[in-house]
Amino acid sequence: MKLAPVLTVLLTGFGILGLSMAPYHVYAQPSEPVVAQEWVSALDSGDTGAALALLADDAVVIVDTAQAGGATEIYTGKDEIGATLRAYAADNYHTQLLGTVEVVNGTTSWVERQSSDTLRSMGLASQDVKADALIEAGKIKSLIYEPVSAQEGGEATPRPSLWQPKPP
User: Fold this and answer.
1) Tens of pLDDT along 66-111?
2) Model pTM?
3) What is the 3-state secondary structure (H, E, C) of the chain?
């Protein structure tokens, strides 16, 4: 039988080439809906570290309340976004996912119900916002929040921005 020497040569060749016969693992990136759900969960629990871990280093978060009479706020990079998230946690901020997360043409979208001490001090129990995100390789590259209308087809209800909690 000449099979044994051939097999020995092949196995030796793998070793010489640095190839391993050992099993290897391929780690898949989490899906866009999973990243979105983890983001909402981290914000709700006040876990700034977990939220920041879901962001790309050069992430941009835009809070667009201009259509509701507010201002557009832009936060760039983990340092700036992290400072804002820490302020959220100090403001007793909570959020929950409403419905399902959808991915259409590369944009991941969901609706959140947000509450905070700032909102409560203004007589609002909560506000609903739509989030549109670009998620690449398991990281949020950009995220845009804007108010959701009070009723289907209605105009957006003016809401204060949660990205600037009231001073202590």
Assistant:
1) 666 678 899 999 999 999 999 999 999 999 999 999 999 999 999 9
2) 0.72
3) CCHHHHHHHHHHHHHHCCCCCCCCCCCCCCCHHHHHHHHHHHHHHCCHHHHHHCEEEEEEEEEECHHHCCCEEEEEHHHHHHHHHHHHHHCCCEEEEEEEEEEECCEEEEEEEEECHHHHHCCCCCEEEEEEEEEECCEEEEEEEEECECCCCCCECCCCCCCCCCCC
Determine the Cα–Cα distance for residues 99 and 115; give it in Å rounded to an integer: 17
Q: Tens digit of pLDDT for each residue in 48-60?
A: 999 999 999 999 9
Does the residue 91 lie in any domain? yes
61: domain range?
Answer: 26-147
Residue 51 near residue 43, CB atoms below 8 Å: yes
Number of domains in the chain: 1
